[in-house]
Amino acid sequence: MNNKKLLEVRRLSVSIQLEDKKIFAVHNFELTLNQREVLAIIGESGCGKTTAVQAITGLGGKNTTIVDGEIILEDITFSPQNESQMKKIRGARISYIFQDPTSYLNPILTIGEQIEEMILAHPDVDEKKKIDTLHRLLELVELKPPEKFLWLYPHQLSGGMNQRAMIAMALASNPKILIADEPTTNLDYITELKIIKLLLYLKNKFDLSIIFITHNISLIEKFADNIVVMYAGRIVEKGTKEEVLGNPLHPYTQGLLDCIPKISHNIKQLNTITGSVPELSSLPTGCKFHPRCRYVMARCLEEEPELYKLSETHFSRCYLLHKI
Amino acid sequence: MKFLSTNKSLVIGLGLILFFCFIAIFAPLIAPYEYDQIDQNSIMQPPSLKHPFGTDLLGRDVFSRMLYGSRISLSVGIIAVGIATIIGVVVGAISGYYGGFLDWLISTFINIMLCFPVFFLILSVVALLEPNIFNIMVVIGLTSWMGQARLVRAEILSLKERDFILAAKALGASDGRIILLHLLPNAIGPVIVSAVLGIASAILVESGLSFLGIGIQPPIPSWGNILNEAKSSLGLAWWLSFFPGIAIFLTIIAFNLFAEGLKKYLK
Amino acid sequence: MLTYITKRLLAMIPLLIGISFISFVVIHLAPGKPTDLVTNLNPKVSLEARMNLNKLYGLDKPVTHQFRMWFMRMLKLDFGESFSDGRPVLVKIKERLPITLAINIIAIVLIVIIGVILGVIGCVFQDKFIDKLITILVFIGFAMPSFWLALILMDIFCIKLGWLPVLGISSVDFDNFTPLFKLIDLAKHLVLPIFIYVFGSLVGISRYMRQSMIETLNKPFILTARAKGLSNRTILFKHVLRNSLLPLVTLLGLSLPGLISGSVIIESIFAIPGMGRLFFEAVMARDYPVIMGLLVIGALLTMLGNFLADIAYSVVDPRIRYKKS
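Above: the input entities. Below: the structure tokens describing the complete assembly.
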């Protein structure tokens, strides 16, 4: 099955102005997303995942500047720095759901009002069908009976229910792409599974593509098609799930996967990666991972490696792959 | 030097405050006339070389009266706020530290005091007693401690359960010691800012009282009672309302700027 | 919700006791007995009247009994008769209350409308020239003593320009005016006092709104609103503004005592026959019962205002109105 290429992100770079210095939170972020694909992005806290995916539609904080980049959405090129272009894409073509849904919902509006707002902002639905669509959306995300949930406020619902409401809201405008930023990190395991199942179901039903940020490797095993690994604002490895999990090329990815305790083995000691994530304001020279890398070579300190190719789909930003 | 340029409010505010303090302290030396020196030949004169701020209804030199008036305003402000702060800190500390029923009792008392429109309360008391400077200071002090008390109480409540306090207790420190040496120093910042703002407010209240005729009585000059004279000669003597008004205005700005600067500095 | 109201009502009981206690203390601050003051100022008062007063204040009974009597009378709003003209204090206050309330309500409405607008502008144009200008202007309004501003404005608009009348709330031949002229006449008399109230109090609401809106802009749900592709206008007014408007109700409640206090000076200057002026006159004449009555009524109004503000807030904030289900 040849799935159509839906989204291509090129050269996305974002800088953040801190009080006295400017840091490059995201550098040269690139990916492609096909129809019906689930792309997982993993990396430690602070590696730039959230900044990167928000920058795809030009979202960012007050001190964030999108330095470079373009996105190609269904063969049309857009510039994330162009706010008026981005306004047309947000919600209509690309939707978001966030971690901690209760904070990300307006506390003084009902769930119904907030979902309705999404429908009205991207009008394809006429007035008469409105309530009907609201009901259908709520039923889709299993918030039943919909008449009841329409009138409730976020603080009256649990985290899991609010996340479902967020999903309903995100899909109300029929977008092609859903970006989910750690949507289940704050939820308990059982609720998490339910939400993931819901997302899979909706993906298949509506031909959605999902970009999924998470820390949780086992979730990726179940859910993702492709994986992108980020470190210090850069993509360090990308490939299909089988490639990255079965044959991790980048030392950082290897370290991450090693860290997962395997229940089948007798665990004497938990593995970690030595060292810690560098401050984005004082990144090391050359390859950003070199201070923590067991394979470090002289080259690694001098110049940052490019993304070298193992196969058509599998890439790694490491000189190990590029022996000349 | 860098500090001076980053915190302009602090510098300007402090500068103005020091200026007013200076003229208050050295009023007798600076003033060309006595504040109650009547000159029946120079009634209601506009500003001139002889009388830089003009003269009033009794021929008294407004400039000199203004200088002496600054003494009244500043001393009332500072002492009234001093009283209020002491009461407020003590009450707030006890309420916050001991908690329980005592806290509820004190908090309810504060709420009761806050129900009274401040000016009504002050007016009532000043009306019943004699309107001299001492009474006014004390009354303003006794009716404006509530804000400080709440501040201190809030700070102590939040600091009470912190580890360094529990450690001090474990080492056997007495309650008084804990409050004085550990808790209060941390709470002192907002209290000082509030006190500075309170001085401006107290000066405004005193001026208001004197303006209404229930505050400082003539011939003792207060910026407020000079304005009172301006009221009866409205339209005829602009200098009687301009100078005291501007003085009060600048004083309030001075203390507010200083408080803003302090807030920034304490961050 | 009902439990919330009941709790707040119950909390008012200690306040009532406290108000009567404090006012009781204030009465007895004056040296000598209350009746002495009367007779000193009004030598015509006969022995019989003095004995009546003694009975009224229960001055011959022990202090606790006096306090209980005072408390009961306070609940009935019975403050005795005015020393100046012998009329019941409550009647005198009732005459003056509507005017003060009306002026204050108009002032509050204007303060809210203008204050919110200024706050929104300050937030939208943060740190630009207009924001700084607004900050300076409201600060001037706050720092300027109301009585000074009154004198200046009176000098300019009433004396030099002659556009507005100086004193009172109505002109001499008010009764002969048509309804429209009556309204205009009233407005002309009240323009300056209301302006002074409003100009002096804008700082609170405008600065609060500006600050609150700036903080709300950084909240997570605003990112969601942006991610939904909503227009800037929608985000600003539906999401940011509404969230910031909620606590305004409580702010208003808190500013009530300040406005009541301020009425003494403004009404005295402009000779407006309201509660504040009555207070001033009573103080001048050492009219005890009226002073006490106004003190208590002022406190009761504040208490009532705060209570209403609390209830109003619990209604508009859904987090309080609807508990978790």
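Note for the figure: Chain A has eleven helices and twelve strands.
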